[in-house]
Amino acid sequence: MGHSRDDKAASHDRIVRIAAARFRESGVDGIGVAELMQEAGLTHGGFYRHFASRDDLVAEAVEMALGHSRVQTTTTGPDGAPRDYAEFVAAYLDPAHRDDPANGCAVAALAGEAGRLDERPRAAFTRQFKTNLDNVAAMQRAKVPDAGRADALLAASALVGAVALSRAVSDPALSDEILAAVRARLVALTEV
């Protein structure tokens, strides 16, 4: 008995969602196709009914993960009101974000390996970073009207770097210190 198109589409989406979370959590090479398919409740053999190659899955999953990041870095809050730069920085550099890479910013999770990805996911990564950069710049300009692109580049790089480093170090106190110090310095840059 065959599966309907809706079932196939739902399975495909489930595989991509799981891969997007696992790639943020463990890196693109941190989980294999067999493990992903098992977590999705499907057989390893069924993978090629959904994707021409692992690279196709990687591209879709990275794009989905980055789409999740787009929501996190938007310039408006859930209520539609403009998002405050200091509140955004505090949320991004919060230990809860650090401790939940599967649901966190894909730019921070994948920055170290994005340069080794194929053209399609790397281009998606670049587009997302540019969007994040524009959003950070808009939030900064709301506080300091003459804030420039260099200010946004500094903040975006510091945000991503702080999360990546805070996840990388084995000393919990140092990890917390990285987040707190970068958060304080980034907020201070927009205080007039």
UniProtKB/TrEMBL annotation:
PANTHER family: TRANSCRIPTIONAL REGULATORY PROTEIN (PTHR47506). Residues 9-69 form the HTH tetR-type domain. InterPro entries: Homeodomain-like_sf, HTH_TetR, Tet_transcr_reg_TetR-rel_C_sf. SUPFAM superfamilies: Homeodomain-like, Tetracyclin repressor-like, C-terminal domain. Gene3D superfamilies: Homeodomain-like, Tetracycline Repressor, domain 2. PROSITE patterns: HTH_TETR_2 (PS50977). The keyword Nucleus does not apply. This is TetR/AcrR family transcriptional repressor of nem operon. The keyword Transcription applies. Residues 32-51 bind DNA. Keywords: DNA-binding, Transcription, Transcription regulation. Pfam families: TetR_N.
